[in-house]
Amino acid sequence: METAVFNILQKAVDNQKQGIPFVMATVVEGVEKTPGRSGFKLIAYEDKTSEGTVGGGKLERMVLDKCEQIHKTKKNALLEFLLTETSEGIGMMCGGTAKVYLEYYPPTRKMYIFGAGHLCRSIVPIFNSIGFYCVVLDNREEYGNKERIPLAKEVYAVDYFKFLETFKPGENDSIVIFTHGHKYDFDILDKICEKNFQVKYIGMIGSKIKAQDAISRISKKQYLGDLITSVHAPIGLNIGKTTTQEIAIAITAEILAVYNEIFDIYSLSKK
User: Which of 8, 162, 213, 257: disulfide with 262, CB 3.0–4.6 Å?
Assistant: First the structure.
């Protein structure tokens, strides 16, 4: 039992890392003679496949049916089953009752942050507090470590361009670029546009003149797709930002506006 539950919990973690939505069903109350003991867990996916168990039989079938509904409603539920063949029961002979809690886990919103400097340290706690899964990258060993940015889910000291060779972000993910001294910003953005990643948001820090120059230079390369037209540069809403903390708030506000579809993602006129 312990091994099975551990495997399901590990699978839930893996799903979150990969951005896979799922419903977790957990038996929160069950008596000894019921098929589903307290703690039994099941993961149900949108394609109607599942892993784990809440006890099998008709109880599990009814739980899976409810999971299908929750994938549509996105609302958690607590179910109670009477495991008898009476009119109040669900047609099982084992007797007793079982309570099952169903919790929806939406597709993970991953935030890939290129650059682990002061701005990164200011913005990760904000992203973390609103449900983003932060992956931080820096090509400096002394900056790209978990001790320095503990609230990030993953931190890597890695060559930016080697990382981009195998990088496969999801459509619900975002990318922000603010490397130290802006040394690698343009080249990272250029490579991202060349690969034409389809993500929710891309932003690069810099002055308005620098940003316009970068966009113009990349546009002239005529890469497949028009990703460069959706890049937010300068990054962040214009709130008269001056401090690192204010810039972090401005960036977060802009990203939330994009996710919440407050303004056209392709518009740069807000600058």
Answer: 257
Reported pTM: 0.76
Structure tokens at 167: 């990088």
The domains of the chain are located at 19-105, 109-259
Q: Tell how strand 77-82 and strand 154-157 pair up.
A: unpaired
Give the length of the chain: 271
Classify domain 109-259 at the CATH class level. Answer: alpha beta
Cβ(242)–Cβ(248) below 8 Å: no
Nearest Cα neighbor of 200 from 159, 239, 254 is: 254
Give tens-digit pLDDT for 168-179.
998 899 999 999
Are the CB atoms for 148 and 134 separated by under 8 Å?
no
Instruction: Render pLDDT for 19-59 as a digit per residue (tens, 0 to 9).
Output: 899 999 999 877 555 556 788 999 999 999 999 998 888 88
Angstrom distance (rounded) from CA 256 to CA 202: 12
